[in-house]
Amino acid sequence: MVGAFAVCSGLLCGTAADFWGDHVEPILRDHCVECHSQTKAKSGLDLTTFQLALRGGDRGAGFVPGKPEDSQLYLVLRPGADPHMPPKRQLSDEQIALVKTGIEKAGADRAGEITPSPAPVTSTAPTRTPVWVPPADLAPPAVIDRFLELGWKERRVRPAKVADDATFVRRAYLDLLGRIPTLAEAGAFLSRTDRDRRTALVDTLLVHPDHARHLREVFDYVLMGRAAKRFEEQRQAQGWFDFLEAGFRTNRPWDAVVRDLIVARPQHPADRGLIQFLYERQNNPQAMAEALAPVVFGVQIKCAQCHDHMVAREIKQAHYWGMVAAFNRTKNVDAESGPGLAESAIGGFVSFANLKKESQPARLLFFNGRSVEEAWPADGEKESDAPEKYRVPPPTEKQKPKAPAEPKFSRREALADAVTRDNPLLARAMVNRVWAMLLGRGMVHPVDLMDSKHAPSHPDLLDWLAHDFERSGYDVRRLIRNVVLSRAYQLDSRPAGKVAPADEAFARALDKPVTAEQLYRSLLSATANPVTADGKVAGLTEEELRKAFVRQFPDLFVPDYNATLQQAMFLANSPLLEALVTSRDGNLSARLAALPDDPQRVKVAFHAVFGRAPDREELKTSLAYLKAHPGNGGRKQLLWALLTSAEFQVNH
């Protein structure tokens, strides 16, 4: 974590900081920051964050932790104060009391341990004294579990029991292959009795071809977002999907993948798709910078375009324009070697203005504190381009270039060096993203807001995992394996007590909405419709199914998931679903019809769809329905109801 609370004690991060953010900051924001913010800091005082309020202004510290009667911030709010703030209105007694309590809590929680000004993180080594230091020989899954156990103890929560094998196999297939297991796959696992069966399953799934495909689908969304038809076809044609999938299949180091995306100069024909990350942004350096920041820093920088971030003050306007500058010599070209990203050796020297209309040069300065020195032309000096400034020069005339221009000094290469070498935020961002993918939310939530206003739920664990990921050589497969084999990942979704613990405690498995790709592939697995010679399933191409579900279920990693009416209508009425549940060629519907009685039909249907047996009430209700609706129509409707149920749409 970067910024105000980067080195605070664990107690403060959980109490005083929360109280200040929840109760004091809204008061100051509504009544004070109009005059006391970065853009209009009267008396040198900025009250937009706890840290800046503590630092104070021209009259000294804003407040003394634990001592409201000695704190200017509190004294000027009281009735009759001279000077009195806010000058034209009086805060209510309740509001003044909340400010007083916030100052008192800051003292009780040792606010003096906080550094007086935020600074960029320069190491993944813990930024605070950890509550526990793992032994060097302890297996990573056990380290994860120990850190979480300490968190459970601090929060006074009991973890859920470990999930049974039927739940685990369904969860693992969904998370690692992007679909539920078939009846045969689940049966093979459930028949095993050896102690290492879960480890063996995970190791098998991690090298399964579907694993690389699943990660490709997830990270296509993370890196590019859902594409309109034109761009999706372009991604396919230019080899973007192939590039991503090959990287996960060969377990290419994540820092190398990210570097390739920034430099955008494929060295081999098989890697030509890597250009798409920048190429699709269509010569827009701001779009390029905004897309890259969450990947390499874990933060959104959009809000720093016009001013320093008003909430996460460590994100500066200079950081935004520094990243933009790294891309503003880049241009899409159609060369003889194929589409690519040309880069000029000159130009791109621009300035930006803050809200005070103060102009500053956009230098190569980045959020992690790294900068790149670059000589600027003097005022009025005109730059001249020349072939000797390039490794691959641009064409001298208006003709199709043989290859994209490549300067000897490349801003993109300089940025790539700055964010993939000695940049611990790259590891933290990826660890948090993978944790969210597997456990339902990140330790920092939302996943792309890893700033000073969004403290991690388990800072020591995040520190350790990021450092371990970095030391492993950015081994994505190893990271996923360690998390999936932890006890935390394998907990049941049912809480241990009557009241479920907070999601950020990770004391039970969180219900994770499945993605569009997981949903339609799970439908294919459950219904067991065979693929015909022309590549169709139930008369449909897989691409037809995929596109239909992507249109209805487009989102991943949403902070708060809510199903829509359109999704419900689609699941209830789509002819695609009807095609899958219609009896044909030995599929699940045909198999149910061949069974001798309804009790067996219900049990097989539940195992195929949910991976479990029906409970007593479910069996009773299902049998009553089949009795009232005998024949193929009733069986089809029962199966349709199971496949469109809430349980089928979550990984739990």
Written description of the protein model:
By secondary structure, this protein is mainly α. Among the domains are: 10-113, no CATH class; 211-420, no CATH class; 512-651, no CATH class. It has 28 helices and 12 strands. The chain has helices spanning 10-14, 16-31, 50-55, 72-75, 93-108, 140-155, 165-177, 183-190, 197-206, 209-224, 229-238, 240-249, 254-263, 276-279, 285-296, 317-327, 411-420, 424-439, 459-471, 476-484, 516-527, 542-552, 565-573, 575-581, 588-594, 598-610, 616-628, 632-643, and strands at residues 330-335, 338-343, 351-353, 359-361, 364-365, 371-372, 390-392, 406-407, 512-513, 536-537, 540-541, 650-651. It has a two-stranded antiparallel sheet. The protein has a two-stranded antiparallel ribbon with strand order 3-4. It has a two-stranded antiparallel sheet with strand order 5-6. It is globular and about 85 Å long. The relative contact order is 0.10.
